[in-house]
């Protein structure tokens, strides 16, 4: 297997390949290490989540089927790439990731804000049904 450094490039500080995308996004990410020899992948997910939490640019919320990432588009996508590299460094030969990304330009909104709005609407519905 080639060294993992073949799969990513460290840029010199004064050189960029392209402009960073400054658009804020929320990304729901479900990373699946494949071929680990066990149906349990929690050890890999714990190490993956630990790496996510070290990020200073991207906020995260762990849930039962993945993690929601919140930050600038370029930072979120870069972190997802880092997660693949991390899992390959852990010995995983194949990594599959499902990503669902949303952007919004009319207002700032956190993952918690989105849940709170729905919870409030459910309470309103329940009041009218009572």
UniProtKB/TrEMBL annotation:
GO cellular component, one term: cytosol
Organism superkingdom: Eukaryota
Domain Thiamine-binding protein residue range list: 27-119
InterPro entries, per the entry: MTH1187/YkoF-like (IPR029756), Thiamine_BP (IPR002767), UPF0045_domain (IPR051614)
UniProt record similarity statement: Belongs to the UPF0045 family.
Protein name from the UniProt record: Unnamed protein product
């Amino acid at each position: 297997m080639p060294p993992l450094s073949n799969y990513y490039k460290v840029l010199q500080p004064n050189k960029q390949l392209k402009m960073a995308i400054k658009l804020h996004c929320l990304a729901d990410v479900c990373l699946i290490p494949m071929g680990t020899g066990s149906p349990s992948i929690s050890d890999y997910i714990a190490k993956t989540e630990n790496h996510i939490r070290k990020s200073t640019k991207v906020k995260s919320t762990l849930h039962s089927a993945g993690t929601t990432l919140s930050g600038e588009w370029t930072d979120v996508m870069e972190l997802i790439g880092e997660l693949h590299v991390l899992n390959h460094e852990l010995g995983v030969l194949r990594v599959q990731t499902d990503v669902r990304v949303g952007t919004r330009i009319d207002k700032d909104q956190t993952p918690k804000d989105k849940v709170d709005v729905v919870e409030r609407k459910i309470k309103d519905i329940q009041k009218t049904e009572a």
